[in-house]
User: Which sequence fits this backbone?
């Protein structure tokens, strides 16, 4: 839709260039362009006007505002001679930057310079019905003399220079601030990188210390195992000798002992037997810890192992209120070491029998994922939760726990856990005091 022009004028002589400049500024002001944009448009108009008059051309100048789409002010400056557009375009490249668009074209009626500037949202031209008022005011506008226009131009120049100076001062201030900030950032960066370096040095030192400590720890643990193995080995011979001598002393064929002597010899023998079992346990554990136990892998017939455990442990499970149950194995065969596996299960079952007064002690096995899980469950005294890890420490016995039969050394569980690790598995316990305990040994199907 072609809008009704806001204003028309004509440039014929040099003086008209001032007039068109004034009118341009007036139109720009009326449609709500801000002061700098008014000056820009006026300057663009006077430049085009100057070039045209310089080339001896008359030109019609038409101002239009369209509100369709993006509201925009258009100015067309046309003169009736075609063929000027290439030269004008070249001369107007700088001037074109003063407005949003500037095109020069050769039309049927001559050469046309068309420029546009978008209107601000606050433009009064956007208020319905205001366009006519604007048009009326513009038509009543009386152009000033070139001297008036020079005054206005000077004022604008002074204002623009002032603004430039203010902007330059602002820029200098901003630069100074930026420099300060940069200095601060650099200082912070240096401080942080110093701190980081120091922390790194600390961490490196800490790691070195840790490495050293773990070497020491390994050495100490090896020394302990060696010591245990040696001592228990050395103790075995004399203790066995004491037991033998005791047996000899109380033998029928020896000299008869008084009742008191016989009682004391029996005491010596039973103490020596306890000592021998402790020494044997220690030796086993030391061997396991020193890595001196190599599993003997074979396809273990679990039915046979369970049958053997049932046979050898039933004599220990003598309490009438306790059911000793060995399930039929749900897994018939497992690749493992038969002796070590039987040793682990025997330790767990012996413990369960020792600590269960009523209820049951039960051994079972089942396949769980890639593992085979052996379960030894009892309804005995149970173990407080905070001690579930401690019972796997050497010589640890739950304070106040009273084995109902047999004695203990506190070495059975650490030894069993060690053996399970050698077999490539893991052992865990769940237990509630007063309700019972369940020890689970889980071994991989293919170790
Ligand atoms: P011990 O030779 O004393 O049995 P273990 O290492 O086998 O040594 O067990 C350590 C301690 O763990 C035991 O003294 C006992 O206090 C506790 N314990 C082990 N098994 C059970 C169980 N089934 N029920 C209750 N307490 C148990």
Assistant:
């Amino acid at each position: 839709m072609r809008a009704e022009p806001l204003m028309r004028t004509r440039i014929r002589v040099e003086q008209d260039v001032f007039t068109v400049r004034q009118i341009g500024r007036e139109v720009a002001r009326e449609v709500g362009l801000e002061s700098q944009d008014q000056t820009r448009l006026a300057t663009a108009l006077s430049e085009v006007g100057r070039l045209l008059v310089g080339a001896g051309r008359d030109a019609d100048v038409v101002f239009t505002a369209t509100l369709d789409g993006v509201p925009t002010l258009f100015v067309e400056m046309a003169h009736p001679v075609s063929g000027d557009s290439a030269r004008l375009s070249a001369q107007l490249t700088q001037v074109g930057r003063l407005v949003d668009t500037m095109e020069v074209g050769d039309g049927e009626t001559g050469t046309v310079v068309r420029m546009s500037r978008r209107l601000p949202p606050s433009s009064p031209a956007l208020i319905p019905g205001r366009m006519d008022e604007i048009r009326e005011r513009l038509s009543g506008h009386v152009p000033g003399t070139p001297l008036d226009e020079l005054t206005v131009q000077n004022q604008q120049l002074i204002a623009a220079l002032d603004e430039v100076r203010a902007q330059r001062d602002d820029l200098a201030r901003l630069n100074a601030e930026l420099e300060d900030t940069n200095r601060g950032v650099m200082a912070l960066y240096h401080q942080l990188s110093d701190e980081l370096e120091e922390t790194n040095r600390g961490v490196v030192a800490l790691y070195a210390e840790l490495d050293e400590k773990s070497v020491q720890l390994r050495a100490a643990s090896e020394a302990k195992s060696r010591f245990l193995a040696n001592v228990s080995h050395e103790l075995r011979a004399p203790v066995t000798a004491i037991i033998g001598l005791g047996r000899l002393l109380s033998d029928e064929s020896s000299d008869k002992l008084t009742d008191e002597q016989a009682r004391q010899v029996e005491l010596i023998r039973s103490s020596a037997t306890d000592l021998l079992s402790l020494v044997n346990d220690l030796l086993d554990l030391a061997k396991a810890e020193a890595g001196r136990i190599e599993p003997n892998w074979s396809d273990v017939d679990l039915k046979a192992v369970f049958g053997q455990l049932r046979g050898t442990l039933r004599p220990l499970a003598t309490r009438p209120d306790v059911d000793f149950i060995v399930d039929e194995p749900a897994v018939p065969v497992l690749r493992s070491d038969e002796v070590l596996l039987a040793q682990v299960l025997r330790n767990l079952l012996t413990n369960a029998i020792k600590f269960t007064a009523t209820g049951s002690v039960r051994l079972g096995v089942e396949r769980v994922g890639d593992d085979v899980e052996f379960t030894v469950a009892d309804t005995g005294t149970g173990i407080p939760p905070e001690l579930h890890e401690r019972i796997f420490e050497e010589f640890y016995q739950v304070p106040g726990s009273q084995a109902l039969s047999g004695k203990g050394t506190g070495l059975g569980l650490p030894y069993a856990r060690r053996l399970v690790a050698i077999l490539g598995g893991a052992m865990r316990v769940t237990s509630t005091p007063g309700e019972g305990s369940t020890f689970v040994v889980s071994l991989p199907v293919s170790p």
In short: The longest strand covers residues 359-368. Residues 169-292 form a domain with the Helix Hairpins fold (CATH 1.10.287.130). DSSP finds nine helices and twelve strands in the chain. The mean pLDDT is 91.
